[in-house]
Amino acid sequence: MKHLNTTLINFQKITDPRGNLTVAQSFKDVPFAIERAYWVYDVPSGECRGGHSHKSCKEIVVALSGSFHVTLDNGDEHETVLLNHPYQGLLIDIDTWRTLDDFSSGAVCLVLASEAFNEDDYIREYGDFLQYIRGKEK
């Protein structure tokens, strides 16, 4: 049985009366070179995002504003994490199915990715994901 390989990272939070600042640097705060950054916002009530896995891309997911849940699945175990602090990021390793849902109004999700976009890296059907994972276990 595989165990979920995720980590909640607390980035440095620099407090200031004028407003707080948080920094994420490759290989210092983030355990990989950041090749791509993207953000998801204006998610309608009841909708979900994600619904895929990656073969080689690692990601850190951050709730820059508001909150949402990230449900992780490695084919054996499931775990749901609430993200609601802009100074925390959830490191998601390869071979982990992820679904993001329950977005609060005004939520903004930032993703820092270890790879540039490559459609061939995605597994978009859950059945295909399970078959892929079972094939790697042999």
From TrEMBL:
Gene3D superfamilies: Jelly Rolls. Pfam families: FdtA (PF05523). Residues 5-133 form the Sugar 3,4-ketoisomerase QdtA cupin domain. InterPro entries: QdtA_cupin_dom (IPR008894), RmlC-like_jellyroll (IPR014710), RmlC_Cupin_sf (IPR011051). This is WxcM-like protein. It comes from Hoylesella shahii DSM 15611 = JCM 12083.
